[in-house]
Design brief:
It is a single chain. The protein is of the alpha+beta class and about 100 residues long. It is about 15% helix and about 30% strand. It is built from 2 helices and 7 strands, in the order αβββββββα. The chain has a 4-stranded antiparallel sheet with strand order 1-7-4-5. It has a 3-stranded mixed sheet with strand order 3-2-6, with no helix packed on it. A hairpin with a 7-residue loop joins strand 4 and strand 5 (about 65). The protein starts with 8 loop residues before the first helix and ends in a 5-residue tail after the last helix.
Length: about 100
């Protein structure tokens, strides 16, 4: 059985800013585009593989989303780039419990 240990968030995961995608450049497809307020549309290209964990970068910071399939994380988000051996669903629930505002 493993034990809990205290660490900095950056030691458990790596967050990365999402990618720019204007409505003009968005192409019809089946890849979910995840913005700071959740799924905001579809595109024809994925920027990262699912399952993934995404949170808003501003405005909706603290809103956390879990997505099973490949997706495009919009520039209004931060997504978990590296899970560093942690279970993806655990990271999702951990981030949902964190107080990013206070």
């Amino acid at each position: 059985m493993s034990e809990w240990k205290e660490m900095q968030l950056g030691d458990a995961i790596t967050l990365q800013r999402g990618y720019d995608l204007t409505k003009k450049n968005q192409k019809q497809g089946k890849i979910p585009v995840i913005s700071s307020s959740g799924q905001s549309g579809y595109h024809n290209v994925a920027k990262t593989s699912g399952p993934g964990v995404i949170t808003g970068r501003y405005g909706t910071i603290g809103q956390v989303y879990y997505i099973e399939e490949d997706f495009w994380p919009h520039n209004t988000t931060l997504f978990v780039k590296e899970f560093k051996g942690n279970h993806r669903k655990f990271v999702y629930y951990l981030l949902k419990k964190m107080d990013f505002v206070g």
